[in-house]
Amino acid sequence: MNFLGATFGSSSTGPGPAASSWSLAERAKFPSGKPTAARIAEYFEPAVRGGKKLNMMEGNWCAAGACFAAMKVVGSEDLEKAGLPHAYRVSGKELEEDAIKHGAWLPVADVLKGARPNVGDLAIYNRGDPQDWTRHVGRVIEVNANSYKSIDGNGVGAAWWVADRLWTAENLRGFVRYPASLGSISAGMGIVAGMLMIAAGAAFVWGVTRVKPGLLRANPLGRGCLGRGCSLSPELVEKYVGLARAQRGAPERAMNDVQRAMGGGVLSFVVEHVGDLTHRMSERLDYGSAGYEYVRDKVEKTLRSLDSKYGFEREHAEQLASNARHYKIEPFEYKRRVDVALKRYAEAHAKLRVYNPAQWTARQVAVKLGTQEFKKARDALRGLKHQLDKGEESWWAYATAPPDPEVLKLGNAYLPWE
C-alpha cells in the first residue's frame, strides 16, 4: 500500500512512532494525565473543516490531541501537505474519511482476518450508535498477538490514557495507517527537505535530507539531540530538562489552585503564563530550542497585563470584590483564600532548583507574583524581555549558560514570611 510515495509497513522510526512518543511525554506533564483547559485549547486551535479554521477552544479532544501530536512531529499545521493521510481534525469521522480518501484506511474486517496496524497508527472507535457521527480516537503504542495498547486523548477522566484492547473489540472501526517513512514524497505534494525529528532514541528524516554522521547522539533522557542541542553536555541537559519536569509538578498544581480560588480574572491569566516560563525555556534543550518564541510570547503578554494603564493591582482588587459577590462569599474570606493559594504558589516555585541567571530570573517572576510583590515581578519580567530582545541566538546562549556558582549558592528563593 502506498501513499504519497511512502510505504506503510513495520518501522520503529517515522512520524507514527514519533507521535506516540510525543503523546506519552505529553501525558507525563500533567497530574493524572489531564491537560489544563488552556492546553486543550491549544489542541483545538489549528483544526480545520472545509478548508477553514474552526476556532474551537473546547470539547471532546481525542481527535484534536492526536492531530496536535502529529503537528508537533511534522512541524506543520497542514498535516496533509506535510505528507500524512489526514488533515488537522477534531472529529474521528473526518479522520476516517481522510484516510479512506488517501488509501490509508485499515478496516476492522481486515483486522479480524489477521491484518495489523503499526505503532503510531490511529485507532478509530464507535462512540455510541455505530450509525452516528461520534467517534473516539487513540494512537497505537504497542502491538501484541491478541491485543494492542494505545494512548488516547480525552480518555478516562478526560485525560491522556493508556488503554489495553483486544483486536476483537466490539467498537473498533479500524486504523488510519501512517507512512513508515517520509523519505520520499511525491512531486504532487512537493518536497520539504531537511526537517529532522527524533523519536524513541532513533531518528527519521523528513524530505530528502540524510543525517550527517555524528549529528545524532543518545542522551540520558532516552532521546537523540539535534543541531545546537548537541553542543550541550548530557549532564547539563538532564539537569535543565529536570527543571522543566519539576515545574509540571507542585508549581503547576499550585497554579490550578490559584485559578480555582480566584474564579477568573487578570491574576488567573498571569499566574498561568508566568508559572510556565521555567518549563518552556528548559523542556526542549536537546532539540536545540530554549523556547524562544514561547517564552517571548508569555513575557510580552504578561508584561502587558501587569503594565495595564488601568492598573493591574486595581483591576485585581475589583475582580476580587466582584467574584466574592458572585459566589456569595464574604470579601475578606474570599481574599484570604486567594492569598493562601498565592502563598502556596510562591512556595512551590521557590523550591524549584535553578542553575543559571535565566532560570533564576524566570523563577523569581513567579515567586514575586505569589508574594504579591508585583513591582518586583514586573522588574524580573523586564529583565527577561531585555534578553529576549537581543534575538534567538543570544537567548539560547543565556538560557543554556552553565550552572552559575552564585545562583547555586542562593538555593531556594527568598520568601518574606520565612
Kindly list the characteristics that best describe this protein.
globular; 12% strand; disordered N terminus; single chain; 45% helix; endopeptidase fold (from Nostoc punctiforme); 418 residues
Describe the 3D structure.
Strands 5-10-6-7-8-9 form a six-stranded antiparallel beta sheet. Strands 1-2 form a two-stranded antiparallel sheet. Helices cover 45% and strands 12% of the residues. It is built from 17 helices and twelve strands. The chain has 418 residues and is of the alpha+beta class. Strand 7 and strand 8 (147-152) form a beta hairpin. It is globular. The protein folds into two domains: 2-176, endopeptidase fold (from Nostoc punctiforme), CATH 3.90.1720; 235-410, no CATH class.
Secondary structure layout:
Elements: E1 2-3, E2 6-7, H1 15-28, H2 37-44, E3 48-49, E4 52-53, H3 62-74, H4 79-82, H5 92-101, E5 105-107, H6 108-112, E6 122-126, E7 135-143, E8 147-152, E9 161-166, E10 172-176, E11 195-199, E12 202-206, H7 234-247, H8 250-262, H9 266-275, H10 277-280, H11 292-306, H12 312-327, H13 331-350, H14 357-370, H15 374-388, H16 392-399, H17 405-410
Antiparallel strand pairs: 1-2, 3-4, 5-10, 6-7, 6-10, 7-8, 8-9, 11-12
